[in-house]
Write a structure and sequence with these properties.
By secondary structure, this protein is of the alpha/beta class. The protein has one domain (13-150): 3-Layer(aba) Sandwich (Rossmann fold), CATH 3.40.50. The chain is built from four helices and nine strands. The protein has a six-stranded mixed beta sheet, sandwiched between helices. A three-stranded antiparallel beta sheet has the order 1-9-8. The relative contact order is 0.21. The structure holds 1-O-pyrophosphono-5-O-phosphono-alpha-D-ribofuranose, manganese (II) ion (MN) and magnesium ion. Residues 42, 45, 101 line the site of manganese (II) ion.
């Protein structure tokens, strides 16, 4: 059972839904004059958040995905960010909103932001569901944020440990014995 590995729920499915609706409303209002709005999801963690968020944005938009990785299977960032899959299309002239599940050291997003910015988008902003500010290693401006959380190792709603737990509906704290062997 997946749930046996969970210590407790940190953010419930209902709290997530309400926050995603709020973010969707704000984004819909901020981008209402854009005629080239592109949301870029960071694979794989952002897929659950992004699939809910796009359905709360009441505007024409396109989606694309980039896969970068900084973790491997450990709970600590390696500090090395690799592009595993690039975008399918150019971002030039588009209003780009990067969608991420969680900001930890900030290395993944700062790398993504700099790379996409160098490709001449009309604008570029960041939307993240979760932020662990205590772990930040690089400075980062986040335009849309769901929740600030303490330094717990969390899984669910897209977030994994060793590739698992992404399909949990709540954001949960993993039992330490699962990752402390
Ligand atoms: C996780 C998470 C963020 C990143 C945050 O991704 O989804 O993308 O780490 O950490 P950082 O701020 O220290 O860079 P991960 O590399 O585990 O890949 P995944 O999304 O495929 O799980
Ligand atoms: Mn990720
Ligand atoms: Mg991960």
């Amino acid at each position: 059972m997946l749930n046996n590995d969970i210590e407790r729920v940190l953010i419930t499915e209902k709290q997530l839904r309400e926050k995603v609706e709020q973010l969707g409303k704000k984004i819909s209002s901020d981008y209402k004059n854009s005629d080239n709005f592109l949301m870029v999801g960071v694979l794989k963690g952002a897929v659950v958040f992004m699939s809910d968020l796009i359905r709360c944005v009441n505007l024409p938009l396109q989606i694309d995905f980039m896969a970068v990785s900084s973790y491997g299977t450990s709970t600590e960032s390696s500090g090395v960010v690799r592009i595993l899959k690039d975008l399918d299309e150019s971002v030039e002239g588009k209003d780009v909103l990067i969608i991420e599940d969680i900001i930890d050291s900030g290395l993944t997003l700062s790398y993504m932001y700099n790379i996409l910015k160098s490709r001449k988008p009309a604008s570029i902003k960041i939307c993240a569901l979760l932020d662990k500010p205590s772990r930040r290693k690089v400075e980062l401006d986040v335009d849309y944020l769901g929740f600030e959380i303490p330094d717990y190792f969390v899984v669910g709603y897209g977030l994994d440990y060793a590739g698992k737990y992404r399909n949990l509906c709540d954001v949960c704290v993993l039992k330490p014995e699962i990752y402390q062997d």
